[in-house]
């Protein structure tokens, strides 16, 4: 039994599994999924299939590479669909994760805004109460006018 020394770095383990960066792969999957959802992709696929079928129907027999039941075309389209579906799901999962983070940030912002509004409401209420106890300019004017009139009457 060998003991690992904690003061020494571990040896690198070689693996037969390929290494990939999930973030880079995810971004690539999103770009592909975004392209698969465009009208341009539909036009490209329609033109591709039309050319394929036209060539294999109209070309001389020796130049046809996929005769009538178009089995190779079916295989190609099935292969494309088998890759497209997981790529689209991966892109959707990444979007769901981003949406979840955005929702959480929005919720926290909403809570902070609500707390700020409640604080400002309490401050405004406190100011209104304090202003009720403070002499206002209009009140002071009316009192001075009343006192002025009283002084005139006494003279």
Topology:
Elements: H1 22-36, H2 39-58, H3 71-133, H4 137-154
Helix pairs in contact: 1-3
Word description of this protein:
The chain has four helices and no strands. The termini are far apart. The protein has one domain. Helix 1 packs across helix 3 (71-133). It has helices at residues 22-36, 39-58, 71-133, 137-154. Helices cover 75% and strands 0% of the residues. With 155 residues, the chain is mainly alpha-helical. InterPro entries: DUF1003.
Give the CA-CA distance, first to last residue. 117 Å
Q: Would you report the number of β strands?
A: 0
Structural class: mainly alpha
Nearest-angstrom radius of gyration?
39 Å
Instruction: Work out the helix count.
Output: 4
Tell me the overall shape. elongated
The averaged pLDDT comes out at 90
* Low-confidence runs of at least 5 consecutive residues: none
Strand content: under 5%
Measured as a percent range, the helix fraction is over 70%
- Main sheet? none
Order of helices and strands: HHHH
Total separate domains? 1
Keywords: Membrane, Transmembrane, Transmembrane helix
Protein name: DUF1003 domain-containing protein
Organism: Nonomuraea ferruginea
InterPro entries: DUF1003
List keywords for this structure.
single chain, 155 residues, mainly alpha, 75% helix, 0% strand
Summarize the structure.
With about 160 residues, this protein is mostly helical.
């Amino acid at each position: 039994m060998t003991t690992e020394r904690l003061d020494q770095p571990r040896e690198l383990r070689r693996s037969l599994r390929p290494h990939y960066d999930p973030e880079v792969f995810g971004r690539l999957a999103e770009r592909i999924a975004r392209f698969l959802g465009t009208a341009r992709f539909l036009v490209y696929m329609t033109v591709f299939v039309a050319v394929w079928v036209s060539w294999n129907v109209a070309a001389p027999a020796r130049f046809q590479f996929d005769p009538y039941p178009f089995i190779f075309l079916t295989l190609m389209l099935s292969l494309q669909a088998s890759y497209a579906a997981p790529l689209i799901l991966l892109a959707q999962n990444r979007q769901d994760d981003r949406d979840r983070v955005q929702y959480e940030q929005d919720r926290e912002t909403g809570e902070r805004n609500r707390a700020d509004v409640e604080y400002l409401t309490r401050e405004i209420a406190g100011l209104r109460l304090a202003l009720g106890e403070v002499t206002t300019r209009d009140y002071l004017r009316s009192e001075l006018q009343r006192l002025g009139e009283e002084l005139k009457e006494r003279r």
